[in-house]
């Protein structure tokens, strides 16, 4: 038996190099990837990689408090914590699969004592003992190993490893998403601060205008309708102020959740004079940024995992081989347990093959191929969505830049018109209706300008997410 086993070992080692897993290639897109973005001339092609450091991209906004909150998101956000735990679980599964490449060894030992009825006393003995006592000691060691003849175990490892890499990309995506959501909510909160200050100043102005109108009415210079219009404008502005207060509170509560804090115990001080930089987007940014997007990387790795699973399914067509060996020793005296006369051993080689399964293995292979096709289609769709996201945000960045310049002009003109008509009303040259209309237009223009500035910053944040991280260091 030993000779036969030793003769079979080289054959097993030879066929162990076989693999049933198809050679993997990254699925090609339905159409070639563009080398430039149509929304921005001058972008050049490059070949970045998902493992590149995305950097602390939120520092592009130049806000120290946002920087501090982003660091807290890294540590305290529970969505990120869950994604990190899933990644550790995936890495542990890789180690578990890799352990299958090595033999498993078992060791057992036992000792028993048994006796029958009756006792006897020996001269000089300290007492009575059972005349039928027997002792038995045994130890055994065994090992088994399933050679990876057809690459099934290696395919399982490849599947687990690709899945772990996809999980790592999911973790990066969770971090990018949480940090992007934080930046967006923070910008929204600061926009609310600015608008609250603008509306509060407008409310103060409307209160003064109401007092002037009331005095003119009391003096018989202005009609009652002027007073009512002034009261209406003031009430509408006060209502807007209450709505902005609610909006700010919602943003603040959302930020609390992102940094892992109860909303009831989390506050951010208002800053009516807040300003933040609008990041400049360099013309030289590369356009081939898909590999840096975590969702695209995760989708591609799941294609690789599905490809490896085809190898696992195809390996079921072939027989499995198992090498086993064991040794044991039994003795009635502990000192004799490891003597040659007490030892026994065995070596063996076994093979198993399914002869008939009514097409189950064929169906499993077909299922694996269909899963691969689905993963490849999902990858292509994710890539197409990535291109769409970048194009949308590039367009938004450029349009908002031009729009902001126009709104600045409109706001200055509206402010001047408001002041001119208010002076003319005091001089009795125009009706109060004209003043109310000018005040509403001026307030709307000021709020639109503030919103446009924050929208430019928000678009920059969205562009960061679309390209999978910041552009510093590229």
From TrEMBL:
<dbReference type="GO" id="GO:0005886">
    <property type="term" value="C:plasma membrane"/>
</dbReference>
<protein>
    <submittedName>
        <fullName>RND transporter</fullName>
    </submittedName>
</protein>
<keyword id="KW-0449">Lipoprotein</keyword>
<keyword id="KW-0732">Signal</keyword>
<comment type="similarity">
    <text>Belongs to the outer membrane factor (OMF) (TC 1.B.17) family.</text>
</comment>
<dbReference type="InterPro" id="IPR003423">
    <property type="entry name" value="OMP_efflux"/>
</dbReference>
<keyword id="KW-0812">Transmembrane</keyword>
<feature type="region of interest" description="Disordered">
    <location>
        <begin position="110"/>
        <end position="133"/>
    </location>
</feature>
<dbReference type="Pfam" id="PF02321">
    <property type="entry name" value="OEP"/>
</dbReference>
<keyword id="KW-0472">Membrane</keyword>
<keyword id="KW-0564">Palmitate</keyword>
<keyword id="KW-1134">Transmembrane beta strand</keyword>
<dbReference type="InterPro" id="IPR010131">
    <property type="entry name" value="MdtP/NodT-like"/>
</dbReference>
<feature type="compositionally biased region" description="Gly residues">
    <location>
        <begin position="113"/>
        <end position="129"/>
    </location>
</feature>
<feature type="signal peptide">
    <location>
        <begin position="1"/>
        <end position="23"/>
    </location>
</feature>
<dbReference type="GO" id="GO:0015562">
    <property type="term" value="F:efflux transmembrane transporter activity"/>
</dbReference>
